[in-house]
Automatic annotation (TrEMBL):
<protein>
    <submittedName>
        <fullName>DmsE family decaheme c-type cytochrome</fullName>
    </submittedName>
</protein>
<feature type="signal peptide">
    <location>
        <begin position="1"/>
        <end position="25"/>
    </location>
</feature>
<dbReference type="Pfam" id="PF22678">
    <property type="entry name" value="Cytochrom_c_NrfB-like"/>
</dbReference>
<keyword id="KW-0732">Signal</keyword>
<feature type="domain" description="Doubled CXXCH motif">
    <location>
        <begin position="188"/>
        <end position="225"/>
    </location>
</feature>
<feature type="domain" description="Doubled CXXCH motif">
    <location>
        <begin position="232"/>
        <end position="269"/>
    </location>
</feature>
<dbReference type="InterPro" id="IPR010177">
    <property type="entry name" value="Paired_CXXCH_1"/>
</dbReference>
<feature type="domain" description="Cytochrome c-type protein NrfB-like">
    <location>
        <begin position="85"/>
        <end position="159"/>
    </location>
</feature>
<dbReference type="GO" id="GO:0016491">
    <property type="term" value="F:oxidoreductase activity"/>
</dbReference>
<dbReference type="InterPro" id="IPR051829">
    <property type="entry name" value="Multiheme_Cytochr_ET"/>
</dbReference>
<dbReference type="InterPro" id="IPR020015">
    <property type="entry name" value="Decahaem_cyt-c_DmsE"/>
</dbReference>
<dbReference type="InterPro" id="IPR053875">
    <property type="entry name" value="Cytochrom_c_NrfB-like_dom"/>
</dbReference>
<dbReference type="Pfam" id="PF09699">
    <property type="entry name" value="Paired_CXXCH_1"/>
</dbReference>
<dbReference type="InterPro" id="IPR036280">
    <property type="entry name" value="Multihaem_cyt_sf"/>
</dbReference>
Length: 309
């Protein structure tokens, strides 16, 4: 393999690489400091990947890189067209094993999550990752490689039927919810977290793809959008006032059952004395409040006031 010259764009991106932590308040770990010095010295190998593979070729993990996108030697903007292995692991310098570290990734990596991400962003700073820096994942030190695998033929999370499993490794609350009695079809991967969320962050609350909770729901439940002649303010405000999108022990993803659900906001005794009670207690049996207020999401019926038809 021959080593192509470093491109201008790459040089610029890489030059930012280890500059960020020097202006950050956090003190640098000794290894990170060492890697920074090594980066500035910029002693790249002369034979690219070959310099590394003379020692690392026996590792199946390392070699799996060549079955994936980053090992593609035909790509004109991938690592193999640039600094090969060192596009990600930094300059070799004197590294021949334990004598001197290389940038290592993952939860046990030897540089901060922020720096690991900077390596990836040197090539992937594009529209898809515009909101990355404002994302809660960044604040929580989640790195690109918490979700992605590079030394692999197939990056697991990119397979739709694996996404929920990868996200659920950390999001145990949502994992528990999706197995509850009522849930979106997440358990069988017919729906994925990414149908509502953007993994790389968004400017909306809870990293939603759409600008609001309701807009997220309308993508698939358009019939709930309205406008209705008789609106229910609670619905117009936020579907999650009553529903947990990830799952619930109650029917219809409801956070609580009626009448408690309704009594979160409405007086418990309310208008009891104004309505005609039928058999039993019409407020607690059957559909409870929905015995009468059965158009809870809004009504277009001329006489559908109070959400009754
Ligand atoms: C002379 C042999 C040799 C060469 C050449 C070599 N390495 Fe290594 N490298 C090793 C050994 C041995 C280790 C394991 C050290 C240890 O156990 O901590 C290692 C460790 C690493 C690690 C750290 C793995 C981890 O999880 O901490 C990375 C990354 C790495 N090498 C990348 C490279 C790259 C990239 C190149 C080429 C620029 C390269 N190596 C060249 C022998 C070599
Ligand atoms: C696109 C960035 C990227 C490129 C290019 C890359 N690596 Fe890696 N490397 C990683 C990441 C990320 C990991 C952590 C494991 C993972 O996510 O797949 C890693 C892990 C490693 C490890 C530790 C593996 C282990 O067994 O734990 C070694 C050694 C290594 N890389 C060597 C290399 C060599 C040699 C090359 C060139 C042939 C190379 N890498 C190219 C990003 C890269
Ligand atoms: C030297 C530039 C470069 C670096 C550094 C780099 N990538 Fe990439 N990456 C690419 C290119 C080029 C592609 C292929 C794009 C395409 O095929 O459309 C790619 C593809 C991907 C894909 C899609 C893979 C697929 O199978 O379709 C993911 C995910 C990804 N990169 C994540 C990462 C992560 C995580 C890192 C940091 C560990 C990283 N990249 C570092 C250039 C880079
Ligand atoms: C929380 C998990 C998660 C994190 C963290 C994450 N990704 Fe992704 N990434 C995904 C998922 C899921 C997909 C596939 C769905 C999609 O395209 O949005 C994806 C797709 C991609 C792709 C291929 C499609 C595209 O969007 O261009 C690239 C490249 C990529 N990610 C790069 C990165 C980089 C770089 C980082 C770090 C700055 C990163 N990702 C962090 C989950 C994650
Ligand atoms: C049907 C759309 C939808 C799907 C699918 C979905 N979410 Fe959500 N998620 C939301 C909405 C809406 C919110 C914000 C309102 C709320 O907290 O209920 C949210 C909030 C969150 C939060 C923040 C919770 C908090 O308390 O701040 C996390 C974490 C989360 N989702 C993770 C996931 C994961 C992981 C998956 C996949 C297993 C997933 N979501 C699937 C719609 C969805
Ligand atoms: C390595 C662990 C990890 C993985 C994997 C992971 N997350 Fe997270 N995520 C976190 C942490 C930590 C937070 C911040 C604390 C919290 O809200 O739990 C977070 C926060 C979130 C939030 C709340 C965002 C906000 O603005 O309030 C959403 C939504 C979310 N993650 C979705 C996802 C999705 C979707 C995936 C898979 C594509 C995923 N996460 C994968 C660790 C992870
Ligand atoms: C990507 C499409 C999609 C999005 C976005 C979506 N849903 Fe759904 N929703 C579905 C599907 C599919 C079903 C299952 C229909 C079935 O099984 O008959 C469903 C079912 C439901 C149910 C009935 C559950 C049950 O137990 O019968 C409720 C309630 C619901 N969704 C509320 C919401 C809310 C609230 C949002 C916004 C946070 C939302 N949905 C966003 C696709 C979606
Ligand atoms: C005031 C509480 C409340 C709010 C807010 C609310 N819902 Fe519901 N939702 C219910 C109740 C109660 C049921 C079960 C009885 C029924 O179907 O009318 C239900 C059922 C559903 C169902 C499944 C049954 C069907 O009719 O398809 C979907 C889908 C749904 N809601 C979507 C939404 C969406 C989307 C929003 C936001 C625009 C929303 N809900 C806001 C209380 C609420
Ligand atoms: C998150 C708070 C909230 C929840 C939960 C809620 N509501 Fe409401 N509801 C409101 C608000 C706000 C209004 C409008 C102001 C008012 O009349 O009090 C309203 C109005 C109403 C109206 C009068 C509509 C009209 O046409 O004037 C009825 C009937 C009603 N709600 C029934 C219910 C029922 C039944 C439930 C339970 C399934 C419920 N609400 C749950 C907040 C809520
Ligand atoms: C037997 C039928 C019936 C049941 C059951 C019922 N309602 Fe009503 N509700 C009515 C009628 C009829 C009205 C119209 C105004 C009136 O007569 O007071 C009304 C009006 C309302 C209003 C708007 C006027 C006001 O008093 O603020 C709210 C809010 C309301 N109901 C909430 C509830 C809640 C919460 C429950 C369950 C605890 C419930 N309703 C159960 C029939 C019923």
């Amino acid at each position: 393999m021959s080593l192509t010259k470093i491109t201008k764009k790459q040089a610029l991106a890489l030059s930012c690489l280890f500059v960020i932590p020097t202006i950050s308040a956090k003190p640098l770990q000794p290894t990170q400091q060492l890697l920074q010095d090594k980066f500035i010295a910029g002693k790249y190998s002369t034979k690219g990947a070959d310099s590394c593979l003379m020692c690392h070729a026996k590792s199946d993990t390392v070699m799996a890189l060549f079955a994936g996108a980053h090992g593609n030697t035909a790509s004109s903007d991938g690592p193999m067209a640039q600094l090969h292995c060192e596009s990600c692991h930094g300059p070799q310098g004197k590294h021949k094993g334990k004598n001197e570290p290389m940038i290592a990734f993952g939860a046990d990596g030897n540089v901060s999550a922020e720096l690991q991400n900077t390596v990836c962003l040197s090539c992937h700073q594009d529209n898809e990752r515009l909101a990355w820096h404002d994302s809660v994942h960044v604040d929580a030190d989640v790195s690109c490689v918490s979700c992605h695998q590079v030394h692999a033929a197939n990056d697991t999370i990119l397979a739709r039927n694996q996404q929920n499993a990868v996200c659920s490794r950390c999001h145990t609350e949502q994992r528990a919810a999706m197995h509850k009695r009522s849930s979106h079809p997440l358990e069988n991967n017919a729906m994925v977290c990414g149908d509502c969320h953007t993994p790389h962050g968004s400017l909306s609350e809870a990293a939603l793809k759409q600008p609001s909770v309701n807009d997220s729901c309308f993508e698939c439940h358009a019939e709930m959008r309205g406008p209705f002649l008789w609106e229910h303010e609670a619905v117009v405000d936020d579907c999650s006032n009553c529903h947990n999108p990830h799952g619930s022990v109650n029917d219809n993803l409801l956070t609580r059952k009626a009448p408690q659900l309704c009594q979160n906001c409405h007086q418990p005794d309310g208008h009891q004395f104004n309505v005609e009670p039928t058999d039993g207690n019409v407020f607690t049996t059957g559909q409870s409040c929905l015995n009468c207020h059965n158009q809870i999401h809004g009504s277009n019926h001329p006489s559908g006031n109070y959400l009754r038809k």
